[in-house]
Amino acid sequence: MKLNIEGLLVYFPYDYIYPEQYSYMLELKRTLDAKGHGVLEMPSGTGKTISLLSLIVAYQSAFPLEVTKLIYCSRTVPEIEKVVEELRKLMEYYAKETGERNNFLALALSSRKNLCIHPEVSALRFGKEVDGKCHSLTASYIRSQRHTDPNLPLCSFYEEFDAVGRQVPLPAGIYNLDDLKDFGKRKGWCPYYLARYSILHANIVVYSYHYLLDPKIADLVSKELAKNSVVVFDEAHNIDNVCIDSMSVNITRRTLDRCQNNVDTLQNTIHNIKESDAAKLKEEYRRLVEGLKEANVARETDVYLANPVLPDEILREAVPGSIRTAEHFVGFLKRFLEYLKSRLRVQHVVQESAPQFLKDIFEKVCIDRKPLRFCAERLQSLLRTLEIADIADFSAVTLISNFATLVSTYSQGFTIIIEPFEDRTPTIANPVLHFSCMDPSIAIKPVFQRFQSVVITSGTLSPLDIYPRILDFRPVTMASFTMTLARTCLCPLIVGRGNDQVTLSSKFETREDIAVIRNYGNLLLEMSAIVPDGIVAFFTSYIYMENIVASWYEQGILENIQRNKLIFIETPDAAETSMALEKYQQACENGRGAILLSVARGKVSEGIDFVHHFGRAVIMFGVPYVYTQSRILKARLEYLRDQFQIRENDFLTFDAMRHAAQCVGRALRGKTDYGLMVFADKRYARADKRGKLPRWIQEHISDGSLNLTIDETVQLSKHFLRQMAQPFRQEDQLGLSLLTLEQLESEEMLKKITQIAHQT
Amino acid sequence: MASLSEEVLLVVKKVRQKKQDGTLYLMAERIAWGPEGKDRFTVSHLYADIRCQKISPDGKAKVQLQLVLHTGENITFHFANESTAVKDRDAAKELLQQLLPKFKKKANKELEEKNRMLQEDPVLFQLYKDLVVSQVISAEEFWANRLGGVNNTDQALYNNNKQEVGISGAFLADIRPQTDGCNGLRYNLTADIIESIFRTYPAVKQKYCENVPHNLTEKEFWTRFFQSHYFHRDRLNTGTQDIFSECAKQDEKGLKSMVIQGVKNPLLNLLALDDNTLDEGYGVCSPQPSTSVANRTVKESSNSAIIKRFNHHSAMVLAAGSRKGETLNDQGSETSSTDGNSRDSDCFHPPVKKAKLQEATEYDDLQGENRPKTVPLNLKKSDRYAHGPVPLQSHQYTTSQDIINSVNYIHHEMSNYKPNLTQVMSSTAASSAIAALSPGGILMQGGAPQAIHQMIPTDIQGELKHLYVAAGELLRHYWSCFPVNTPFLEEKLTGHLEEMLQAAYNKFHAWQTRRMMRKT
After folding, report:
1. Which end of chain A is less congested by CB atoms within 10 angstroms, N or C?
2. Partners of B333 in beta bridges
3. Partner residue opposite B367 with nearest CB, options A14, A114, A603
């Protein structure tokens, strides 16, 4: 259907529309109009992605100069591919309606592992290996060496692309990862480099967060993306953690040992080169004197996305003299390395700030702040000059140099914690230096600064106001959308007590309590008898799950559950869990029914959807608080309190509730779907917890279902399931939660729609 | 005694049959019973005719032995010798137990089957009479074609109708150990449970085959099974003398191979989920400490063993349930063979992925009704649907308007009727016309088709039918020879099939002439 969103013609590739989709598009349009940022929460399964795409594509067609590019960031590879498929649907609809193919170019970009078509390289299993191998075949100096020695191996796909591929732009169309590979195979071009090259002129780019948030990758891939792009972070409820991860560094003794090897290799290589090709080193020296002027010019003219690792100040300066020659730099690295080694020899936990660290390093080994800041840049230059083939081998020294630059650049937002051993095993020495980022806004700041509109959206972003605070930006729109439902297809229940009135809770004091564990078991047992097909149960942590499973096994509860359904359990091994997942789905498919025991914050809870019969009930055992004894977390909480005035408890609860919401939201992926959401912990009933659940879940929790016993839960569930099992036709939804164009345009409905968006 | 030349293996006196005392003789090839004081057998059966024997339960007052014959008939012997009744019966039973299997041949069973088929299917019986008895076709040939076909269809029916029964997920839980009061445990095993164990854990079955009965008795085997770490999954491996430690290793291997095989659904592959390029050393979470085996406590590793075992158990139960179906599918469709174990077939991968993605991005309620709507078949008269079109008699359909019009017309005619008395029929002509129009009259006899089966006597009809069916059967044989791809078929075709057809034709001709003769 063709929609009129405040004067903008939007093609929507379906005959019907959900009211909230219309409302969502309205808000999105306002965000784009204002050229500002937005935070939008919309329940999962209400067609968020297609609404986003429809509106932004329409906007791009209407105002091609104002929005040139859509950068759509998602979390996982399947999600990226899903987005592209939806986009394909939209474009097909455009072609059908307008009768002509518009010349949109949209493509997905992923790591080499997912795009490589080189027969040997793509056979490697791990992403890192693929990257390293690829680099050893395609690095510029390798290729220039081949002029003298034609026997060196090469990647014909890259050569072909380099020779021909850059002249002809990728023809307009929608390219998913597989399409890119097909295209690459047909042409004999490398799909990865083709994609990386093509994102510069593509209208829509779909890739993972890291390509924008991780400074190391963003610098390579996304640096030159146009300023007037719209950036969308989908499934963004965890965006702060992604930011923090990309800026944090851990250094172990193993890292230092490997680093030592790297430095030795560097030294030898320099020694060799000096004898054979001294001119090369001189040339490098000259370049370093001139400094990073080029980069500076580019950034000033607003061509580049800023790199938070490479702050503005150092761009204006030349590399300091003390590390300008290669030998000096290697000597510098050695000194730095020795210093780190001495720091790791501590016997007790040390926590200090970056300035403290710098002061100490200056006192101990006379390393100044300034050369440290140039460390990462200087190392890159050296590696290039020395023509090191396998970058992967030098990951350790790269890590150290990145650490050096970060620690000397940011005096705030980071903390250094040195732990001589793990808390659980105080006898085994395993010193780790955590250089931990506490401020997610550092990594994302360049994104907000550079791009005109950044939209953060997810099914679970409650409470909305916390994201702008921790990411430090001013949104122009903030809205949470409810789910219009013709039938209440979700049933959140809070189970607070067992049948014997024992309080159910995963809180630390009662964690080992056998009565609680038994009651949890009974809950699962009873539910397994009444819920058809699949049940997914989430625990707060892996260790907790292990313990509970063991005692359920001893008590014979698992055996009784097995009478009703098969049991599959998530393990720390991803491959094993994948297998269990597939078997779980198979058991749901063939009617036997199964239970999946899984962990909140685990891979399953973040990336796998349990549509329809794959998840008729989700049981959340306990409140998934993060492990609060961790020093890194404590430091972060302190920082949040000091900098953003967010109370520790508020943040912890917010974090726990967003994960709980993620878990229970897995079961409901649409309006025709239905699912029970059982929160098995008394604490969920409290207003401060409940209030942090997304609105679309919150509004279905009735006062009567706040502190249920297991029996009551079973009764309510039975009732709910019986109701849901009745046939549900499109006609039932029509006019309420599903609209035709005609219905949409009625005065009354438009009035109703304005109430869907809940501004904060 | 009539046939004392036979070897008598056992004689049991005081055996009652039909409330008559007598003596039971077990001979080399038959079992016989003669009433007391008479020297002839009133009951005598070949062992080959006996299907099975049954005995009365131990507690019963009457000690009896029952023989069931293939014909379905049964004979009961009552051992009446008070002191030795049970012993007598058991002796007879033991002997029969040894003898009966020798006579139970496959041919017997087949014969029985053929017999049953002929009895159940009168058409087939007639066909048999027409073709085999009249020696148009040899009996073997008749059955060769027939039995094969029957068996096949039978099997297909069997597969369709009877669903493979899966295994209960909790079969091990059903073996509730009971204390027997003196520091021991009793496990109750049923044949079902044993089968479940075997089907779920082929390794155990293998062990069973290896060790029972030459190394261990069955009881010992199961005792060890329940004592082993293998059964109690949480216990750590204690000794190497445990015969099941190998099973555990095999299971481990099986699990590993399953894991290595990976998953077919790309959306579920957690390994490929992340597009994460964070190098080692970056990120907040330090490398998981729990993965290093060294510093895990015994309890923890036993916990994780339980978890692994549960996953494995569930997977095996699931596989045991679907194994049969899968192998069938493998033969049937080519696509399913690819998802079995040839994971490397990359060409197969993308379509699955595409389909899954397609599925995941579809909103069926947003879409209009673009798929063809299926209309449920609503049959008012199912027999009409099953039997095909019936030749409509010449009446044409008239619309209701036509009927109303014509009724009106007749009404009009009648009301305006004026007898034209000058041109009336003669009374005889009128009465004959009335007779002809009344039921039974010449004009009311209905159409011709009804006549044929009334005109021809039933016996002729029957004979003709038989000839027709027999000829049809021969033609079936004939056509089943095509394509002629074996020398045997060729020989059959050129050789005796031709003769058979000739014979059938002759037979028909003979029948025809006989009929003609009788008619004239």
Report:
1. C
2. none
3. A14
User: Could you tell me the pLDDT band of residue B145, with boundaries at 50, 70 and 90?
Assistant: low
What residue ranges of chain A have pLDDT lower than 70? Answer: 291-306, 308-316, 389-392, 760
pLDDT at residue B190, as a whole number? 75
pTM of the complete model? 0.74
Q: What is the pLDDT of residues A563-584, one digit of tens each?
A: 899 999 999 888 889 999 999 9
| Residue A91: predicted pLDDT | 92
Q: Which residue of B has its CA nearest to A217?
A: B277
Determine, for residues B277 and A111 on separate chains, whether the beta-carbon distance falls below 8 Å.
Answer: yes
> Is residue A420 domain-shared with residue A498, that is, in the same domain?
no
How far apart are alpha carbons A220 and A210 in whole angstroms?
Answer: 11
Q: Could you say which of B170, B265, B318 has the minimum Cβ distance to residue A559?
A: B170
B273: chain A residues, CB-CB within 8 Å? 76-78, 603, 607
* Same domain as A518, residue A372: no
Q: Looking at beta carbons, which residues of chain B come within 8 Å of A547?
A: 303
Q: How many domains does chain A have?
A: 2
A633 with A710, same domain: the answer is yes
C-beta atoms of B318 and A586 within 8 A:
yes
Closest chain B residue by Cα to residue A598: B307
Q: Does residue A699 fall inside a structural domain?
A: yes
Nearest CA to A209 out of A170, A236, A190, A175 is that of A236
Residue B289: which pLDDT band, with cuts at 50, 70 and 90? very low
Residue A532 resides in a domain: yes
Q: How far apart are CA B120 and CA B113, in angstroms?
A: 10
How many angstroms from the chain centroid is the CA of residue A597?
Answer: 23
Nearest to B282 among A249, A574, A608 (CB): A249
Confidence of residue B153 (pLDDT cuts 50, 70, 90): very low
Inter-residue contact B67 to B50 (CB < 8 Å):
yes
Residue A16: which of B268, B289, B365 has the nearest Cβ?
A: B365
By Cβ distance, the residue of B261, B287, B314 closest to A568 is: B314
For residue A650, give the CATH number of its domain. Answer: 3.40.50.300
CA distances, A598 to each of A603, A663, A674, B285 (Å)? 9, 10, 20, 19
More confident residue, A202 or B274: A202
Contacts of A401 in chain B (CB under 8 A): none
Contact A592 B166 (CB under 8 A): yes
Partners of B169 on chain A (C-beta within 8 Å) are: 562-567, 592
Model confidence band, residue B112 (pLDDT cutoffs 50, 70, 90): confident
Cβ-based contacts of B261 with chain A (< 8 Å): 579
* The one-letter amino acid at A742: E
Give pLDDT, residue B396.
59
Single out the residue in A438, A471, A499 at which a domain terminates: A438
Categorize the per-residue pLDDT at B340 as very low, low, confident or very high, splitting at 50, 70 and 90: very low
User: What are the chain A neighbours of B355 within 8 Å (beta carbons)?
Assistant: none
Whether residue A705 sits in one domain with residue A614:
yes
B383-410 tens-digit pLDDT: 666 666 555 555 556 678 888 888 999 8
Q: How many other C-beta atoms can be found within 10 angstroms of the C-beta atom of residue A628? A: 11
Last residue of a domain, one of A418, A438, A458: A438
Does the domain spanning B4-108 belong to CATH 2.160.20.10?
no
Give A687 to chain B, closest Cα distance, Å. Answer: 31
What's at A488, amino acid-wise? T
- Does B158 score more than 50 pLDDT? no
Q: Is residue A230 part of a domain?
A: no
Would you say A97 and A352 are in contact if contact means Cβ atoms under 8 Å apart?
Answer: no
User: The domain containing residue A322 runs over which residues?
Assistant: 247-438
Cβ contact B365–A670 (<8 Å): yes
Averaged pLDDT score across all residues of chain B: 72
Give the residue from chain B lying closest to A80, CA to CA.
Answer: B275
Helices A326-344 & A375-386 angle (0-180, nearest 10) = 130
Size of interface A-B (CB pairs under 8 A): 241
Domain boundaries for CATH 2.30.29.30 within chain B:
4-108
Q: Per-residue pLDDT averaged across B437-444, rounded?
A: 72
- Residue B88 host element (H or E): helix B85-103
